[in-house]
Amino acid sequence: MQFSDNLFLAFRSVKGNRLRTGLTIAIIALGITALVGIITAIESIRTSIYNNFARMGANGFVIRSWEMRIFFGGSQQVQKGSTKQKVKTSNRNQPITYDQALAFKQRFRFPAVVSISYRASGTATVYFEDQKTNPNVTVMGADENYVKINGFDFDAGRNLNPDELQSGANVAVIGHDIAQKLFGSKPSQAIGKDIRIGMVKYRVVGVMKSVGNTGIFSADNLVILPLNNVRRVYTISSNSSFQIGVMVPQIALLNTAIDEATGTFRLVRHLALNEADNFYITRSDTLADMLFGSLKKVRFLTFGVGLITLLGSIIGLMNIMLVAVAERTREIGVSKAIGATAIVIRNQFLYESILISLLGGALGIVFGIAIGNLVSLLLHAGFIVPWLWIGGAIALCAAVGLLAGVYPAMKAARLDPIVALRYE
Predict the structure, then answer these.
(1) Distance CA 287, CA 78 (A)
(2) How far apart are CA 96 and CA 240, in angstroms?
(3) How far is 357 from 406, CA to CA, in rounded Å?
(4) Contact partners, residue 409, CB within 8 Å, separation at least 6
(5) What is the pLDDT of residues 276-297, one digit of tens each?
(6) Separation between Cα atoms, residue 31 and residue 290, nearest integer Å
(7) 3 state SS of 77
(8) Which of 148, 197, 306, 390 has the fewest beta carbons under 10 Å from its own?
(9) Rg of the chain over all Cα atoms, to the nearest angstrom
(10) d(CA 288, CA 311)
(11) H or E stretch at 78
């Protein structure tokens, strides 16, 4: 019997038992939907993170206080040569002061852009007349280079100018979501308006374009104030730490710039040659790599959930095929009586099992891509089709059909034609 004949018989059998077959297909589709859907969503999140960090530039790094190494997964020891140097306990948690950050900016001679910033608040509410935002606005004090280093662009208005930065004027650059919440869909309406943060009023001079969520905070819920204004208005304690951002023109210069920055800041911090660094440097892509590592773990967990679901599908499909063998025992006897071999009978049931599994897989792939791209749509990441995982899902479904169909097919192939013909 030809392959096409076996395939036709498989289709006929599937069509003849629509309810039972449909339930089995639905079970398989559920597992594949979960697998492909979550993988597609993860790829969407990955693309969004990559786009956001690429926008900020992979050719940059940030100098932070030593205690921030815990957040970024850093080691407590620094390897130099053949010995390990520890940061002195008395010198370990010294914050980066404004004077130190300013001294670094003035001394750093490498061809790079340097920015000093200070996170004044992470839970502020911004007011305009009777409107207000949610209390999740980040207030950042920054200099003229902060916008450039972070890859921000403007929907309306401009960046902070040198006079405003020098005098610490009450002016602000606001994120896209803040402008939309307070002033409606036209960003230009925010320019020149007075907003209030706490009890202090600020004149809006710029509205940034939407850049989305970087995974740490939403840049669209960000207010940028002149650094000198933040130093005057907000309480900066002895434990408060500034951060220094550096961006080089080419990524090939990044490692050299980091070495140069390390040496320069060691001089600023007055570290002896036998002392390890008491500050922490993170590349722009370090956080992205951390997030990607977390997404890999989620991906493997998702694969495990999908396998468990498909294991249940194997059991269900095998049960369906065993019922099919029992129902078609007399048909098997007739086929053998007119010359069908055991191999032909076996292939009929194997093809039917694989066909049911592939139909469930195809349905699951369609729903999985649709559900996953809903996340992509929300993140503005574009349409995602995980071809590698789709190919893997198809192969997995074929394997499920094969495993579930082997025993029923072998049982059908071994039936005695005489006994099968007398079966009622």
Answers:
(1) 20
(2) 8
(3) 13
(4) 321, 345, 346, 347, 348, 349, 350, 353
(5) 888 888 887 666 666 666 667 7
(6) 28
(7) strand
(8) 148
(9) 32
(10) 35
(11) strand 77-80
Among 109, 211, 238, which Cα is nearest to 153's? 211
Closest CA to 163 of 205, 196, 103, 101: 205
Determine the Cα–Cα distance for residues 26 and 363; give it in Å rounded to an integer. Answer: 8
Non-local (6+) Cβ contacts of 232 within 8 A are 168
Contact between 311 and 403 (Cβ < 8 Å):
no
Q: Which two tokens stand for residue 356?
A: 């049911």
What pLDDT, in 10s, does the model give residues 340-392?
Answer: 778 888 878 888 888 888 888 899 889 888 888 887 777 766 788 888 878 88
Q: How many helices (H) and strands (E) does the chain have?
A: 14, 14
Token pair for residue 265?
């800041």
- d(Cα 241, Cα 65) in Å, to the nearest integer? 7
Does the model's pTM come out above 0.90? no
**How many other C-beta atoms can be found within 10 angstroms of the C-beta atom of residue 163?**
10
